[in-house]
Amino acid sequence: MILLSSDTFRKRGLIFFLALYFLLNTLFLTKYPAMHSDESWLSGLSNYMANTGDFGVTEPFFDLKPRTPHAIRILFHGIQSVFIKFLGYHLFGMRLISLCFSILNLYFFYKLSFLIFNKQSIAFASILLLSFDIQYLYTSHLARPEIIILSLLTGSRYYFMRWSKLGHYQYDLLLALIVGIG
Question: What is the mean pLDDT of residues 38-52?
Answer without folding.
Answer: 79
